[in-house]
Design brief:
Layout (H helix, E strand, L loop, with lengths): L10 H28 L6 H22 L5 H20 L5 H24 L1
């Protein structure tokens, strides 16, 4: 990754946040395939839609941070909200390690995005 200097002077924090949202994007995207293959509750439309929302907002948040957008804080706040919702939905699949791992990544992403939103305010 290229060196990124933000207007906030948070090179490491920004790079870490981008890495976390990219990890969340990738994890949710691959978990969607798992859910569709698993079927049943895993493949219900509401669950898949929420996971797709998480995939898309993570991609968007990374792009806003990479280009140092003036709106990155607002996008990161929305990303945190969506990731929290996705984590809660994945956590309901108790006993499913793959879903619990996805929830954990979403929680980390939500926390990172909350920190970015707070520092951009």
């Amino acid at each position: 990754m290229a060196h990124h200097t933000s207007r906030h002077g948070m090179d490491d924090q920004m790079a870490d946040a981008i890495a976390v949202v990219n990890e969340c994007h990738d994890t949710c995207l691959t978990t969607i395939s798992y859910c569709l293959e698993h079927g049943g509750e895993h493949a219900k439309a509401e669950h898949i839609r929420l996971m797709l929302d998480c995939v898309d907002i993570c991609r968007t948040a990374a792009a806003f941070m990479l280009r140092d957008s003036a709106l990155e804080g607002r996008v990161c706040a929305v990303c945190a909200e969506v990731c929290d919702a996705c984590a809660a939905d994945c956590e309901r699949f108790t006993g499913d390690e793959r879903m619990q791992a996805c929830a954990e990544v979403c929680r980390r992403c939500a926390e990172s995005c909350r920190q970015m939103a707070a520092s951009a305010a």
